[in-house]
Amino acid sequence: MNWIKNFVRPRIRSFLGKKREMPENMWVKCPQTGKMVFYKDLQANLWVVPESGYHMRMPATERLRHMFDDGEYEAIPLPEVPQDPLKFRDQKKYVDRLKAARAKTGRDDAILAGVGWLDGVRVVIAVQDFEFMGGSLGMAAGEAIIRAMREAVKRRCPFIFFVSSGGARMQEGILSLMQMPRTTIAVQELKEAGLPYIVVLTHPTTGGVTASYAMLGDVHLAEPGALIGFAGPRVIEQTIREKLPEGFQRAEYLLEHGMVDAVVPRHEMRAVISRLVRLFTHQPALVETRAEELPAEEVGETKPEEPAESDATESAETAATAEYEKENAPKDGEAAESASGADMQEDKAEARSSADEAKEAEGAEKESSPPAKAEEARKD
């Protein structure tokens, strides 16, 4: 049997050609409905499942390209920090975990920040990537957040933060917890400079991140269905030994209880943030006019030009009218005769009117004369 596997089967495969390998990530399963979605369709729809509207995690680089005008921005260089100050090790070395996360995402840590234009207004946008060790807050992430916020203060522009994290990074211990007050001080520097700080809470946002800079913004927006809280719902249920209400710690639940200002779908997030930035920076609002309401020149359509024959026809008609008036215009003698004839007709009309008035006066006298004669006869 070995000769069949080792000789015959490879020979048959060589005749038929190599088997075409199918990429593993061509189809993505919707966590809400269980349906399979084509990868390209999901990416074109901003990582929102078309049928169910479920918001998948959006890569950090695509998030920045979507927010900035024309997808162009200047990446903010982030400072370097010690990789493993505590020499931490659990099932794996912390250094090995960092290497694996960097190979997976192609970045040094969980924060990616850039400066660019949002509908004509300069802004600084930072994104916390959950793909890098759950977006956990460590020394490198804390330094990156502080650098990005101070860059906004330096450039005098608003700061927008897309947050997604499981909390502080346990492999760095107390050093990761110290990033909570440090980032809080950086937020205070933004407020002292009078600059807007807009926070967008994405799925999930929990732990020490929720307890620090994620809840210190001027406006808190959230994506639909995002899990937002400090401890997870399972831990809470085990602690209090009670069943939590449906939708607890979700964005919609927090909106009803005043924890966030608005729940905004991903397709509308850019426009909402743009309006908020213009409102806070006292910029004029963008005028959104539909194409059918614009004149043809502004839409790009050109008005159809009238043919040259119409101009020639109008000029010909004008010339013919002038020539006809010239031919039928009365001469000097004819004009005098017509004027004298008109005078004679006016004299005749006046004579007729005076005759009619005389006849009316005679009739009135005849009517008034008999009573006068009767009075004279009575006197006699």
Topology of helices and strands:
Elements lengths: L1 H15 L10 E3 L6 E3 H6 L15 H8 L5 E3 L18 H12 L5 E8 L2 E8 L10 H17 L3 E7 L8 H4 L1 H14 L4 E9 L13 E4 L10 H8 L10 H6 L5 E2 L2 H15 L15 H4 L8 H20 L4 H48 L1
Helix pairs in contact: 5-7
Percent range for β-strand residues: 5-15%
SS-based structural class? Answer: alpha/beta
CATH top-level class of the largest domain? Alpha Beta
Q: What name is given to the CATH topology of the largest domain?
A: 2-enoyl-CoA Hydratase, Chain A, domain 1
Number of domain units: 2
Series of H and E elements: HEEHHEHEEHEHHEEHHEHHHH
Radius of gyration: 45 Å
Distance between the termini: 174 Å
Instruction: Assign the CATH superfamily of the largest domain.
Output: 2-enoyl-CoA Hydratase, Chain A, domain 1
Q: How confident is the prediction overall: mean pLDDT?
A: 82
Q: For the report, how would you describe the main beta sheet? A: 7 strands, mixed
